[in-house]
Amino acid sequence: xxxxxxxxxxxxxxxxxxxxxxxxxxxxxxxxxxxxxxxxxxxxxxxxxxxxxxxxxxxxxxxxxxxxxxxxxxxxxxxxxxxxxxxxxxxxxxxxxxxxxxxxxxxxxxxxxxxxxxxxx
Length: 121
Description:
- By secondary structure, this protein is mainly beta.
- It is 12% helix and 56% strand.
- It has helices spanning 15-21, 26-32, and strands at 5-13, 38-44, 47-54, 57-64, 68-72, 78-82, 88-89, 92-98, 101-108, 111-119.
- This is Fatty acid binding protein 1-B.1-like.
- It holds the Pfam family Lipocalin_7.
- InterPro entries: Calycin, Fatty_acid-bd, ILBP.
């Protein structure tokens, strides 16, 4: 099943606790907790481009499975990662529920942040 498409956040669990744990300032957590972000995923084999628009903030990350790349984290830091498969990056997993929804789960220790997004296009 292809990830390609545009998705809008439908629901999320654990947002505030997770964002506090990764060091996001309280004012940004408060602003972001009710925003329905839009994620656009372009998939071409092992190459991905992910554009996340949250209010006025746009974060774009491109990567190839199995190759080290620098991406922007949720806190705005640039970090180097190597994605080993389409569904796993250390504490990040993403999978299609069906053709119309994607679930992303981020885990940090015992904290879990889960996002469910519905396909727009």
